[in-house]
Amino acid sequence: MSEILSRHRPLALLAAMIFVQVLLLAFQIKREHDVRLVRYWAVQLLTPVERAGTWSFSRVTGVWRGYVGLRDTRAENDRLKREVEKLSMRNRELESKAAEAQRLASLLNFREAHSEAQMLAAQVIGASADPASHTLFINRGERDHVRRNLAVVTPEGVVGKIVEVFPSAAQVLLINDKDSGVGALFADTRTHGVVKGSGDPDPRMDYVENGEKVRAGEVVLTSGEDRIFPKDFPIGTVESAAPGNPFQVIRIQPAAHLDRLEEVLILLTQQELAPKKTEETASSSPSPASQPGVAKTKSSSPNHTSPATPKKTMPPVSPKPDAASAAPAAVTAPTPAPAATSSSPTTPPPSAPPQ
Amino acid sequence: MAHMLSAGTHAKPNIEVHKFYGGAVLLVAFFSLVLQAFLHKYGRWAELIDLPLLVTIYFGVSRRNPVSGMFLGAAIGLLQDALGHDNPIGMYGIAKTCVGYLSSSVGARIDTEHPIARFGLVFLLFHFHQAVLTITQRVLLNHSFPFFTLRLFLDSIVSAAIAVVLFALLDRLRRPS
Question: What residues contact A45, with CB distance under 8 A and at least 6 apart?
Fold first, then answer.
C-alpha cells in the first residue's frame, strides 16, 4: 500500500487535496431543511449500513423465532385448538341463552303491557309426531290451572288453543292445523270470517264473499266471537286472495312464527287486551280500525258488520265432525261459559248478520 | 510552502525546468488576485478574464512539477474563494488544484513555449477548469450550471489570447539557466 502511494505520490496528494477541500465545502454548504452537507453525507453513508444491520438482525431473529423457537408450538397449537372448541361451544351456549333471554323479555313486556289479563308463560317442549297435525306440547298442565280451550299467544300474534291437558303438560292446537278455526275480521273493513287451518303452513280465511275487496297485506285480527281469543288480537296478514266457490280463497301469513315457537303465553281469561299498551300489536295492525278508539267503537256493537260483510249466516267454524269432536269448535267458548251454546257447531257465530 | 513549491526538481531531463527569482511566484499570484479584484470594479468585461487561472497555468507549465503546481493552484483558488462573497470556500480551490496538477503534468511532457501551444493549452485548461467548477457546483451545491455556452467559449478565446501576451511577460521573471 505504501509502495503504491509512494509510486503515485502526486496523484495521491491530489486526491487528498481535493478530499480536504470537498470536506471544507461540505461543512459550509447547507442542503434542504438547513442540514449541512457533511451531516447529510454522513447519514447517507451510515443509513445503508444500519439498514443492512437491522435487516440481518431481523433475519437472524426471524430464523430463531420461525424455527428454533417453535419446538413447543405443536403442543401449544393442540392446546389452543381445544380451547377454541371449548370457547366456541360456550359461545354458542351463550348466544342461545341471549336469544332465549330476548324472547323471554319480549314475553315479559307483553305480559306487563297487559297486566289486566291473567297470563301464564309456558315453554314449548315438543311437537306432534304426525306431520299432518300441527300441535305442540307445552310444559304447563293441570297443576298450573291450565284448562282446555284457553288461548295460546305470543306477543306477535295468535298461536292456537289448548286442546288436551295433562298433569304437567298440555297440547296446543295451532291455528294452521286443519282442525282449527279462529273467529277473525279484517282490520280495515271489519269484515268477519274464520281463519282455518288447511294442513299447509299458512292458514286460510274462509267465509268471505267474492264481492269483498281484500288486498294483500291487510291485517287480520281476532273477532272475539269464538270466546277463546281476545278481540282485536293479531292473527296475521293476507298473503293472497283469489275468487273461489262459494267464498274467496284467502291465504293468511300468521303473525306468530308458528314453525319456531319456543316460549308462549297462555291467556287464562278471554278478557280483551288493551291495544294501547301493546306496542307489538299496534305495529302489526297499522290500519285505523286497529287503533284503540276505532277498535272499541266497532266492538261496542255485537252485531256490527261492515258494509261489505256477507249477508249470509256464518256457518260453524269447525264443520268437520272429527274436528268438532277433537276440539269442540274453535269458536266454541270454554265449556262453562253460557255463550258456548250460541257458538256450538250447529249454530252461527253471535256476530253473524241475520239472514 | 516554498519547499513544496520547489519540489519539482525530478522532472525529465529532456524538458527544461524553469526557475524563477525568489518570491516571484508568490508575488505574481498575489498580484493576480489583487488585479482580478481590482478589475472587477470596472465593469463586467473583467469577468472575461480569470487572471488567477492564467497564473496557475503558467507556473504549472513552467515548473513542470505536479505537486507544486497543485499546491499553487489550491492556494490561489482558496484565496480567490475567500475574496468572493457568495461562493463557499473550496469551489475555485478544487478547480484550480486540478488545473495546477494537470498543467504541470502536461508541461512535464510537452513543450509549451510556443505561443500557439500556449494558446491551445490555455483554451483547453480553461474549459477543464470550467468543467470541474460546474461539476462541483452541480454535485455539492445542487445548482444546474451549464458545462458549455457561447459566452464561455468567448471567454476561453479571450483568456487564451491574453495568456499568450501575459505568459510572454512572465517569461521575463525566469532565472536564466
Answer: none
Cis amide linkage into residue A167, ω under 30° from 0: no
Is A250 part of any domain?
Answer: yes
Q: How many domains does chain B have?
A: 1
Look up the domain containing B147 and give its range: 2-6+16-175
Q: Would you place residue A348 in the very low, low, confident or very high pLDDT band (cuts 50, 70, 90)?
A: very low
Is the confidence at residue B58, as pLDDT, over 80? yes
Dig out the grid coordinates for A188 from the structure.
280495515
Q: What angle do the packed helices B24-39 and B66-83 form, to 10 degrees? A: 30
Min Cα distance A57 → chain B (Å) is: 34
Domain annotation covers residue A130: no
Angle of the B51-63 helix axis to the B150-170 helix axis, nearest 10: 50
Domain boundary among A35, A50, A71: A71
Cα of B118 to nearest chain A Cα, Å:
24
Domain that holds residue A332: 151-341
Phi, psi angle pair for A127, to nearest 5°: -135, 175
Q: A119 lies in a domain?
A: no
- Whether residues A261 and A156 share a domain: the answer is yes
**Interface contacts A/B by beta carbons within 8 Å:** 48
| Contact: B98, A18; criterion CB under 8 Å | yes
| Cβ separation A25–B140 shorter than 8 A | yes
Average per-residue pLDDT for chain A = 76
Residues of chain A found within 8 Å of residue B97, distances taken between Cβ atoms: 14, 17-18, 21
Q: Is residue A9 part of a domain?
A: no
Q: The whole model's pTM is what?
A: 0.43
The Cα of B90 is separated from the nearest Cα of chain A by a number of Å equal to 5
The pLDDT of residue A42: 81
CB contact under 8 A, B98 and A22: no
- B36 pLDDT band, cuts 50/70/90, is confident
Indicate whether A161 and A263 sit together in one domain.
yes
pLDDT in tens, A118-154: 888 899 998 877 777 888 899 999 999 999 999 999 9
Q: Which residues contact A245 (CB under 8 A, 6 or more apart)?
A: none
CATH number at residue B123: 1.10.1760
- Here the ipTM equals 0.76
